Amino acid sequence: MSKARLWGADNMRLPGAAGARPRYNIAMPFAWINGSFVDEDQAAVSVRDTGLLHAAGIFTTMRAVGGRPFRLDLHLARLRRSSDALFIPIPYRDEQLEQAVIELLRRNSLADARLRLTVTRGRATDDPLHGMRLDPTVLLTATAFEPYPQEYYRRGMTAVVLDEQKANPYDIQAGHKTLNYFSRLAALHSAARRGAGEALWFNVHNYLQSGSISNVFVVSAGRLITPPTPQEMQDQAVASAIPYPKSAVLPGITRQLIIDLARREGMDVVLGALNIHELLNADEVFITNSVMGVMPVCRIERRAIGQDRPGPVTIRLSELYAQMLEAAREGPAGNASRQIL
Predict the structure, then answer these.
(1) Which residues, 6 or more positions from 306, have their beta carbon under 8 angstroms from its beta carbon?
(2) Which of 81, 94, 171, 219 is most buried as measured by Cβ atoms within 10 A of its Cβ?
(3) Domains in the chain, CATH or no CATH each
């Protein structure tokens, strides 16, 4: 019998009765919520959950390869930094979360998957003795991995520049992946209506920060340039070269892996500021995240970047990243979680 769960025959309405339509046996994927595995359609949060009411939550999106999470250690480390900064407690140890991820992949019969781990402050109640009490919600979902169309990687993606919306580095949420995501989704929707796959954000000082769902890299005069994150801005050598005092750049996991790969290849990596002119006159532009990997951007609106095709640096880093994923897929159990460059 298939591992997929089937409903009993008594739950099916057989054809023939007047006005009746058959209901088919479709297995519902599992989710993991607050320590329990449940059908996705039965997973529930309180109507008082502060993640629902106030977007008081954080999340991370990950890949699984070969039935194991890819660089889960880095994702959890970033999640915990955001947890500490935004007062959102995570009531589970990393080992417990890793076991939940692996078991969820097994229960859903997924080898290559897209995973999302969400943590909210949960329901807040007043405790007469101890003040406010939080009951965090921790939710994990997994779906089959659906790659971007190969045509995007061959011809490059088109991106647009946001004219009116600006990334605010002075917001407490800047540099964190929070549930307050609607402005980014709205920007993506606007980009799609204009025939583009990503919308690029500049900060209130008019310097490039990121895409709506990605980090941005520029190749110019032999240098690989990417805007620094808030953590990187704590380095005085980096901060002194940046003409703005704070960053709104998310410390992307794929971004860091690409920086490490580029440095290992001997490339000149620069954490630097980029204005609109430097972006439009770049030799190459590419964006990164855990789902798309390394995505060439060959057009900024109607302006071709470089030769209007993926450049050699983008292609090389994409190859190296693909090799890293393949090594994780073929490696021993646990290798995907803590692969070392």
Answers:
(1) 282, 283, 284, 298
(2) 219
(3) 28-144 (3.30.470.10), 150-328 (3.20.10.10)
